[in-house]
Every structure is written in structure tokens, then in C-alpha cells.
């Protein structure tokens, strides 16, 4: 029993222990589960919090973005003075193309960006503190930024575009000389329409907004474009007295009861006139006209009715008011009715102390009125600007919105400025007037006017419709901008030719006129073939043909005609022909000069002058207009008198010309036109009188040598034919060694291109020796067979033995230095070589330093020059060339640097001017040939 009891106890203990162990295990498990659950709960809570924070942040960012977008849109709708806070307000036009700005009258209550618990939101703004950023408002833009709590930091973060900047905080009340509700830079502004869009009623509770609204209206557009008519029967308009300065400039009138009818009638008449004459059925409103043309030919007129007892108005006045209400806005006439008169037009948009019918649901906090001093200063400045005259139109405002939309079939039209009435002044070229004379003393703005004209033409007409040839005889490069250059690689796609620095190269003017005459002939022939009498008909009959109108502009053209010589005679003849016949063939001349009065060659030909019916006189121009027309004496600076009736008094138009020459105005336009250029449009040919052309690698036809570049539109090479025939030698005449050496090198190198030739070189002038040696080396590289001779008699002796039927050149530098030392046999051999050599294909290209020395070598005083068909004179005067020249007394030739007069009896009727090429680029350097250090 005792055992049994003991066993039972043992079992009971064992069971108790096991149960205890199991209970322990269960408790551990439960504890672990609890720990796990709490960890998970903590984790979930964290995730949940983060999710909430993320969503909050996203929401805040979306709100902020929306807010900023709204602020940015507001800044655009009410730019500059239309939206700036009074703290930094100044008259500043933000008026662009299209309709007028909206005007700020306050803020949307509680529209500031409210804080949230999200981490990326700015901290809260104290609701009663108004802030303005002087930096933001001084840019003229409406404040659109938000930032940190100014109270906390004293600094403000502003964001302008991508840039983030800090600016000192200035904390001011909305209307800071009154206790009006605060305005913050981050609250949404309340903008209302007036100009171009609406009339307005202002309740007495909102009357404080009137002066601010009017100030914004007059300040946000160019000075003088808003006229205020204030009807103030009780003379209560004290708040508008600060605008008084506008009155003196005719921009503000106060009207009492006695003036009311007249004002209403006159405004109704204005609406009628604007509709009939300005909009003329082409545009529905002035706003539409401005959007289409970029111009505002009429001011806005605002009739303010202060506490008018409308019910007591006579029926006529009420009817006129109703007319203005119905039709005024389109014609720029707006009504602002102030007061609580219920008899007034009930349906006008209405501003109260807390709301505006155009912003339903929004509670407004109106800005306080601007400080009196701000109004006074602004009114004064606007009045002064207005009295000083209209701001000149900008070039960009005169250009068409769409490029190249016009056809030149009937003529060429271009805006060049504005008349005093603000109308765009256009110039026409076509059947009438066909050509233009532009005159004005130096600095009066001729070149600028030509730029403006060219800008207008090049924007209206595509390069298929218009081709320009531009020549400037002045020293300087005013037309160089039209050609592709190193600094600016663009060009004006219409320009076919630009000539600059051509004051000494009158022949280039001649070349242009000859080129135009050739074009005239081509057009006349085509017209005949199509039985057309003028360009318009030719274009209709030959729609596939390329018949652009041509405008040739010659600045300082008096230079072309200033000397009594063959050049002037031919130029005048060509001008006469072009002026007479160009009209019908679409070739128009624009001649500009600082001294039209002094061009005798012109005034001696009344029939020539008569063709130039379009006259443009810049200030102080003489004789451009008719003799009794003195308008140019009084026309203002940067204006022009435009007259398309040959200068008769009754056709004068005074036109303000924009600044078209300034790079800021010109370069963007040229870039735009250049980018629009058609495929295949080539840059214009550029002739620069100051530039020495380099010999290029171009090869002339076989058995031909080049001598230099001709002065013509195509910049061709002057050719010397080297075929077997008597006389095919060349004499270079004059003492300029470098140019003579360049001509000989050019001739030999070009003759050697593409064919095997033999060359004998004899250089008797030390100054030319290094060039001659370099030439010898270059010719050998070209594959020519070159023999060098130290003495002239070596060249002459047995010359015929060298003739083997292959083209052979004798290049003799300073023939006369050697010929004087020849014995009689040598002299005879020289003459025989000159006379008979060419028939054996041995051509002498010799340089003689004077005409008598050449003559001496050809046989003395009575010698003929038959052995030398071609000559090229450098520094030899015209009369000295008489024996060689077809003209008795010699050619009209005035020697000048880097120019030669070339005549080939076999080819030319008259000598032509050539520019010897620079050959250095085609020759090895002298050090390489002479073993110099
Ligand atoms: N409408 C204008 N608005 C502003 N500046 C102008 C205007 N017209 C001319 N100018 C400026 O006046 C100066 C002289 O103008 P421009 O070169 O056109 O005169 P010009 O009669 O061609 O003189 P010149 O014969 O000496 O070249 C230039 O600096 C030009 O920028």
C-alpha cells in the first residue's frame, strides 16, 4: 500500500510536472505570438502612416502645381501693370498682339496655398500678413510665387521659371496706405475683364476699386491708348483727381451734366466711324484686328459714370447709352457705371465689395486703392510719353504674321512704318510707281529705311516671287549682312547679289546694270513668245516659268555717275533703258543717295528722272521731292516723306520708320527667313571691293589661260585664248611687280591645268624672282616641262627649236630689262619669236614696265602692235595706252591697286577691268623652293 501510494504520488508528480512543462510551453508560444502580432501591428502602422504621408504629399504637390499653374495663367492674363502689386507698380505695357490684358482688382479670399501635414508643403502663412516680393513684382509680372513662412525666417524662397532665388521679404498690406484686406503673393489674384471684352458695373461697396482699375487700364497699355471720359455730375470724383495730368495730354476729361449729351453722341459717332472705316467689314472688332495685324489703330475709350442718376436721363441719352452698351466693346468703347443705381443696365457684369458676377462663387477681397503718389507719378509719365509722340513702331510689328503669303504678280507691297495717325504706311512697286529715288544727307537714315523696306518685302514674298540685287557704293559693309559671313553664316534667301565696298569699282555697278538689261531682254522675248505685254500677263501665260519681280537697290548710286566718262555714259544709258522698260517686265530700281541734287548726269535726263515716281525724302533731303515741296525740311528725325507722285506736295505722307538696322531687329528675322529657305537656295554672290580673290583650282577650257577675275555679276575669270594664231601673245604693262608676277603665275598655272604644256621662264626682275621660282616648282608638280633661263637671249635664241606642236609659254618677267642688252641678232630673234611664235604654238606672256619699252622691242616709234593681241595694263595711265587702244586718246582708265585693264583685240570691243588673283595659296612657299632657313 505504501508502495502503491508512493507510486501513485510519483505518477501524480510526474503528471503535474508534465502539465506544468506543457503550460510553460504554451505560455511561451502565446508570448511569442503576442510579440509577433505587436511587431506586425507596429509595421503596419508605419506602412499606413507612410502611405498616408505619401498621399498627402502627392495631394499637396498637385494642389501646389494647380495653384502655380493658376498663378502663371493669371500672370499671363494680367502682365506688367495690369497685375503687379501696388508696392512696386509702375506704368508698363504688357500689351502684346491680340486682346488687352485682364485687370487685377484684388484676390480670391482664402485662396492662398494652405498648409497641410504633408512633409513637402510649405509651412502656413499667417492669414493676416500680406506679403509681396519686390523682386517678383519689379519684373512687371504678377506675383506668382510662394515660399517659407516669412514670419519664421525673414527670408523668402521664390521660384521664377527654373531658377530659384532668395529675396528679402517685404511685407506690406495690399493697398498699403489703407487697412484693406491683405494681399499675398501666393493667393490667387482676382482678375476682371474690361478693355476689349466688357463693360462693368461697380457697386458703391466696391467703389474703392475704381481708381486702381483705371490706373491699371491706362498703365498696362502703351501711353495714350486708353482715354478716360469721367461723367461726374456731383463732382464727387475726388478719388480720381490724382489722374489730372492725363487731362492736360487729352487723355482724360471730366464731364458735367451739360457735357453729357455731347460725350455720348461723340462716342456713338466713334463707334460708327470705327466700324465703317477701321474695321470696314474685314474684322469683327478692334481686338480681332489687333490679333490679325498686331496694330491698334484706335485707342480704347472708357466712359466712367459716377453716381449717375440714369433714370432721370432724357430718352435720347438713354438710347445713346444703350447703343454704346450694345456696340461699344467691339469698337473699343467701354462703360464703367459706378453706384447703386438700379435703373442702369442691369445685365452688365457687376463688381461688389465681395464678388464679381464673372467669377461666380468666388469671394473676393478687393485691393485697396493705389497710393495717390503712385497715381500722380504714373499719370504724369503717361501724359509726357503721349505728348512726346507715338513710340515708333517696331520692325517686328510691321511684318506679316505669315511669311511669304503674297504673290508679286501685280506688284510688290511692303510696310515700312507708321503714319502720324498710327496707320501702317506701305510702299508699292509695280506698274505704278515702278522705281524709287531715296534721298537724305549722311546719317539721315537711308540705309535703315532700305533695311526696313527689304525686311517687309522679304517677309511678304518668297524667293520665287522676289529676287534682290543689292549694291552699296559706300565704304562700309551695310549690305554685307545679307550675305553669308564668318560670324553669321545665314543669308537672305531672296538676294542674288550683294556688292559692298565698291566705291572705286564703278564698273561693278555697270556690270549689274548690264546683267539686268540682259534679264530685261530675256523677259521681253518670253513675253513676246507668250503674247504678253507685262509681267503679270507673262506669269499667267507661263505659270511654270520662274519670273520673280526683281528689285535692284543701289545705295550711294551717285558714285556710279559722278565722273564724266564712258562708265557714266553707259550707266546712264542702261539706267534709262531699265527705268523705261523695267516697269512692264517686273524689274524695279531703287536708287538711294546722299546727294541726289548733285547728280548732274541724272538731272540732264528728265525722261530718266520722270520714271522714278516714288520719292522718299529723309530729313533735310534736297531735290528728291518737287521743287516747291519743302516737306523734307521739317520732317522729324527717323521719319521719311513718302510721295508716290513724283514728289508733288499733295501726295506727301510723313512716315515714322522703325529701327530696322539694329542687330536685335534684323538678325532674328534673317534667321527665320533663312530657315524657311527653299531647298537648293544658294547664298548670294558677294562682290567685295576690298577683297582680293584667291586663284582657285578651277580649270579653264583647253588652250586658255586666266589672267584675273572680271568685275561682273558672275565673277568670271578673264580668259586669254592661246590657240595657234598670229598675235596670241600677252603684254603686261606697268611697274607693280607683285601683281605682274601674280598675273603670269595665274596664266601659266591655269593653262597647265588638264593639259601638258612646256614653259620657259626668264625672270629679270629680282623683286619677282621668288614668285617665279615658286611658279616653276608648282608647274613641275602640275606635270609641265619647265626650262629656267637667266638671260633673255637664251629665251629668244633658237626659239623655233623648242616648238614641237605642244602648247608652250614664254614667261618673261621684265622683258625690257633684258631687251636693252640684246645684240642686234638677239633683238631680231625676240621680234621674230613674238611675231611668228604663236603660229607655232609658242606664246610669249611678257611683262614690260612701260608702253614705250614694249614699242621699242616691237620695232621702235613706228612699230605696230600686231604681234601682241592682248595687253593688261596696271599702273599705266589711260592716254599712254592710246597706241594700243581702239578708242582714240586711250581708254578711260584710272590705275588703282589690284586692278588691271585688260584688252584682247581678238575678243573685246572695249577693255575690261580685272582683279589679279592672289596666287600664294597655289604656289609653294618661297622658303621651300629657295632652301631659305
Ligand atoms: N528709324 C530709326 N530708328 C532708330 N535709329 C535709326 C533710324 N534710322 C536710322 N537710325 C540710326 O541712325 C544712324 C544713321 O542711319 P543710316 O546709316 O541708315 O543713315 P544713312 O543716311 O544711310 O547714313 P550714311 O549715308 O552715312 O550711311 C544709324 O546708327 C541708324 O541705326
Automatic annotation (TrEMBL):
Entry GO MF terms: ATP binding; DNA binding
Membrane-spanning residues: none
Annotated segments matching region Disordered: 113-153
Annotated residues for binding of ATP: 440-447
Native organism: Glycomyces lechevalierae
Protein name: ABC-type uncharacterized transport system YnjBCD ATPase subunit
Top-level taxon of the source organism: Bacteria
Listed InterPro entries: FtsK/SpoIIIE/SftA (IPR050206), FtsK_dom (IPR002543), P-loop_NTPase (IPR027417)
Record-linked PROSITE patterns: FTSK
Record has Coiled coil as a keyword: yes
Keywords: ATP-binding, Coiled coil, Nucleotide-binding
Amino acid at each position: 500500500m505504501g508502495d502503491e501510494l508512493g507510486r501513485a504520488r510519483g505518477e501524480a508528480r510526474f503528471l503535474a510536472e508534465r502539465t506544468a512543462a506543457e503550460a510553460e510551453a504554451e505560455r511561451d508560444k502565446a508570448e511569442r505570438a503576442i510579440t509577433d502580432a505587436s511587431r506586425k501591428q507596429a509595421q503596419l502602422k508605419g506602412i499606413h502612416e507612410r502611405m498616408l504621408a505619401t498621399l498627402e504629399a502627392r495631394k499637396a504637390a498637385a494642389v501646389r502645381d494647380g495653384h502655380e499653374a493658376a498663378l502663371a495663367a493669371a500672370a499671363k492674363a494680367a502682365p506688367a501693370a495690369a497685375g503687379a502689386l501696388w508696392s512696386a507698380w509702375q506704368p508698363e505695357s504688357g500689351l502684346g498682339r491680340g486682346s488687352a490684358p485682364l485687370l487685377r482688382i484684388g484676390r480670391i479670399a482664402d485662396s492662398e496655398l494652405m498648409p497641410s501635414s504633408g512633409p513637402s508643403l510649405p509651412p502656413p502663412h499667417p492669414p493676416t500678413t500680406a506679403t509681396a516680393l519686390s523682386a517678383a513684382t519689379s519684373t512687371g509680372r504678377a506675383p506668382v510665387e510662394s515660399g517659407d513662412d516669412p514670419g519664421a525666417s525673414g527670408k523668402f524662397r521664390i521660384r521664377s521659371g527654373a531658377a530659384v532665388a532668395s529675396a528679402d521679404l517685404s511685407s506690406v498690406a495690399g493697398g498699403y496706405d489703407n487697412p484693406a484686406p491683405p494681399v499675398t503673393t501666393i493667393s490667387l489674384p482676382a482678375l476682371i475683364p474690361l478693355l476689349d471684352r466688357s463693360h462693368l458695373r461697380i457697386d458703391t461697396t466696391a467703389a474703392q476699386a475704381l481708381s486702381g482699375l483705371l490706373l491699371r487700364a491706362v498703365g498696362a497699355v502703351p501711353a495714350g491708348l486708353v482715354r478716360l471720359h469721367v461723367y461726374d455730375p456731383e463732382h464727387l470724383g475726388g478719388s480720381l483727381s490724382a489722374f489730372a495730368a492725363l487731362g492736360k495730354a487729352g487723355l482724360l476729361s471730366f464731364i458735367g451734366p451739360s457735357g453729357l449729351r455731347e460725350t455720348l453722341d461723340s462716342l456713338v459717332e466713334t463707334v460708327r466711324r470705327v466700324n465703317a472705316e477701321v474695321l470696314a467689314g474685314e474684322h469683327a472688332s478692334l481686338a480681332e484686328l489687333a490679333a490679325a495685324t498686331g496694330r491698334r489703330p484706335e485707342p480704347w475709350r472708357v466712359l466712367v459714370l459716377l453716381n449717375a442718376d440714369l433714370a432721370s436721363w432724357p430718352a435720347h441719352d438713354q438710347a445713346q447709352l444703350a447703343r454704346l452698351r450694345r456696340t461699344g466693346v467691339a469698337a473699343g468703347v467701354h462703360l464703367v457705371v459706378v453706384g447703386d443705381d438700379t435703373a442702369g443696365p442691369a445685365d452688365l457684369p457687376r463688381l461688389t465689395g465681395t464678388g464679381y458676377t464673372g467669377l461666380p462663387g468666388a469671394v473676393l477681397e478687393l485691393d485697396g486703392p493705389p497710393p495717390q503718389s503712385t497715381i500722380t507719378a504714373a499719370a504724369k509719365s503717361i501724359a509726357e510719353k503721349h505728348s512726346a509722340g507715338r513710340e515708333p513702331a517696331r520692325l517686328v510689328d510691321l511684318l506679316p504674321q505669315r511669311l511669304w503669303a503674297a504673290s508679286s504678280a501685280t506688284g510688290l507691297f511692303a510696310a515700312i512704318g507708321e503714319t502720324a495717325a498710327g496707320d501702317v504706311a506701305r510702299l508699292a512697286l509695280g506698274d505704278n510707281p515702278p522705281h524709287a529715288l531715296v534721298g537724305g544727307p549722311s546719317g539721315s537714315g537711308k540705309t535703315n529705311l532700305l533695311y526696313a523696306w527689304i525686311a517687309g518685302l522679304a517677309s511678304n514674298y518668297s524667293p520665287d516671287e522676289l529676287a534682290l540685287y543689292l549694291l552699296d557704293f559706300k565704304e562700309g559693309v551695310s549690305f554685307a549682312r545679307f550675305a553669308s559671313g564668318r560670324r553669321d553664316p545665314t543669308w537672305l534667301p531672296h538676294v542674288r547679289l550683294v556688292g559692298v565696298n565698291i566705291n572705286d569699282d564703278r564698273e561693278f555697278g555697270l556690270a549689274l546694270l548690264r546683267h539686268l538689261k540682259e534679264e530685261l531682254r530675256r523677259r521681253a522675248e518670253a513675253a513676246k513668245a507668250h503674247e504678253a505685254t507685262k509681267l503679270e500677263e507673262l506669269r499667267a501665260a507661263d505659270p511654270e516659268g520662274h519670273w520673280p519681280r526683281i528689285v535692284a537697290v543701289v545705295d550711294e548710286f551717285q558714285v556710279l555717275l559722278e565722273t564724266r566718262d564712258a562708265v557714266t555714259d553707259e550707266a546712264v544709258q542702261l539706267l534709262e533703258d531699265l527705268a523705261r522698260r523695267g516697269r512692264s517686265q517686273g524689274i524695279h530700281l531703287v536708287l538711294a543717295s546722299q546727294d541726289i541734287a548733285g547728280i548732274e548726269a541724272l538731272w540732264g535726263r528728265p525722261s530718266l528722272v520722270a520714271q522714278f515716281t516714288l520719292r522718299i525724302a529723309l530729313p533735310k533731303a534736297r531735290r528728291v521731292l518737287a521743287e516747291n515741296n519743302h516737306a523734307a525740311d521739317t520732317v522729324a528725325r527717323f521719319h521719311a516723306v513718302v510721295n508716290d507722285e513724283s514728289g508733288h506736295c499733295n501726295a506727301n505722307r510723313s512716315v515714322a520708320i522703325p529701327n530696322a538696322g539694329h542687330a536685335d531687329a534684323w538678325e532674328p528675322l534673317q534667321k527665320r527667313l533663312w530657315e524657311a529657305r527653299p531647298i537648293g537656295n544658294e547664298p548670294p554672290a558677294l562682290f567685295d571691293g576690298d577683297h582680293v580673290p584667291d586663284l582657285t583650282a578651277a580649270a579653264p577650257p583647253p588652250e586658255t589661260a586666266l589672267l584675273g577675275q572680271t568685275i561682273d555679276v558672275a565673277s568670271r575669270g578673264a580668259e586669254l585664248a592661246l590657240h595657234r594664231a598670229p598675235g596670241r601673245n600677252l603684254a603686261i604693262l606697268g611697274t607693280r611687280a607683285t601683281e605682274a608676277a601674280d598675273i603670269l603665275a595665274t596664266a601659266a598655272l591655269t593653262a597647265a591645268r588638264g593639259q601638258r604644256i612646256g614653259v620657259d621662264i626668264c625672270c629679270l626682275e629680282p623683286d619677282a624672282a621668288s614668285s617665279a621660282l615658286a611658279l616653276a616648282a608648282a608647274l613641275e608638280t602640275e606635270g609641265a616641262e619647265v626650262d629656267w633661263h637667266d638671260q633673255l637671249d637664251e629665251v629668244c635664241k633658237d626659239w623655233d627649236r623648242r616648238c614641237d606642236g605642244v602648247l608652250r609659254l614664254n614667261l618673261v618677267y621684265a622683258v625690257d630689262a633684258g631687251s636693252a642688252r640684246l645684240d642686234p641678232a638677239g633683238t631680231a630673234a625676240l621680234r621674230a619669236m613674238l611675231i611668228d611664235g604663236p603660229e607655232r604654238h609658242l606664246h610669249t606672256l611678257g611683262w614690260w614696265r612701260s608702253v614705250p619699252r614694249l614699242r621699242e622691242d616691237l620695232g621702235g616709234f613706228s612699230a605696230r602692235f600686231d604681234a601682241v593681241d592682248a595687253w593688261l595694263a596696271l599702273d599705266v595711265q589711260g592716254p599712254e595706252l592710246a597706241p594700243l587702244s581702239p578708242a582714240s586718246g586711250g581708254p578711260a582708265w584710272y590705275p588703282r591697286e589690284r586692278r588691271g585693264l585688260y584688252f584682247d583685240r581678238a575678243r573685246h570691243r572695249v577693255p575690261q577691268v580685272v582683279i589679279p588673283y592672289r596666287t600664294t595659296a597655289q604656289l609653294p612657299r618661297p622658303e621651300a623652293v629657295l632652301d631659305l632657313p
